[in-house]
Amino acid sequence: MPENGSFYPRHKLVMLPGPTNVPERILLAMARPMINHRGPEFHQLYDGIIRKSREVFKTKDGEIAVVSASGTGGVEAAALNVVKPGDKVVVPVFGEFGERIVEHVKRAGGDVVEVRSPYGTAPEPAEVERAVKSAGKVKALFVVYNDTSPGVTYRWLKEVSRIAKDAGAFVVVDAISVFGGDELPQDDWKLDLVIAGAQKCLSLPPGITLLSVSKELKDYISRNPPSSTVYFDLSKYFEFNKKLEIPFTPAIPIFYALDESLNMVLEDGLDRRIERHRVAAMAYYKALEAAGLKPFVEPRVRSNVVITVEYPPGVQDAAFRDLLDKEFGVVVAGGFGSLKGKIFRIGNMGDISPINVAQTLMGIAGAFSELGVKVDASAMLAAAHEELKSLLSGQSL
Fold first, then answer.
1. What CATH number has the domain bearing residue 249?
2. Residue 319 belongs to domain spanning
3. Contact present, 350 and 20 (Cβ < 8 Å)
4. pLDDT > 70 in the chain, percent
5. Burial readout 195-209 (b: 16 or more C-beta within 10 A, e: otherwise)
């Protein structure tokens, strides 16, 4: 540490399910000069963000609200703007972030109907449909599209959205960890509110959340603004959007970063970016299984953006991750909640590459080997290489 007390961490490969590695283009964008958040420079910046965000949300007329807050702030905003005291809200729960949505909705006064399944699985659409029908008048369905705690993606989002819309309910989706990394066409799937996070597949630093709101829900919120919040009152954001401003002081450097991230997504091509996440995820799953390790989640709901792996018997979570970090320069996450100490989690988000995959896998193999767990590194790399062929373009592992 320098004498002045400043802290400069050494460069590591950050393979967390957020925050993620931030590309140099985005870091440089944040170094731009400060501007007046009520002036023409910001108006131009925000206009571009709204336009490009709609392309990534795949919505023609969704109202975009960009809030200087973490993704949890976005979920809080959704609950406070959609739910009134006594409203019935259906929530599939298959991970810790589903549990958090239950808490958000209850704090907003909602009457929660939970549809639970064991972590590592997800409720079938038929179970959600039964809950919606038996609940009577349902105000909304809140769904975590990708729960990073078990590593589950809810693959029936389109189907349960149809079920909810047929019942006259709003559909609210926590897509914080998966926006830009998996299929999510808001208009086609009839999603009323989609929440996106910064520090996940967009490769931004933490500190900003995007909400895309359907016209139907926007009209409802504008007529019925929340009474228990000022900062998260989305009707204020809708009004300020008309003059290309934010109602409260925005985190301007992160807005610069968001604009550059959206440029990168659209230059790359959203579909291509999603496919890269899918291929890299498959490489992880195949490689880990080839090495004798066990993915935690059942195959049909495995996430493409966070890979969860069960620890072999006798391996201590802290010892493994500390070794992986200090000796191999790779940072992964442990489990939390009921999964603490049972799994580790690999983030496969944002600016990913075959080299990232290979370095992470070799670090995992090396750390387990030093802890006395036999892992076939050759089989691991061979399996990964087979899956990654379409991304390699002449590179080799």
1. 3.40.640.10
2. 270-392
3. yes
4. 96
5. bbbbbbbbbbbbbbb
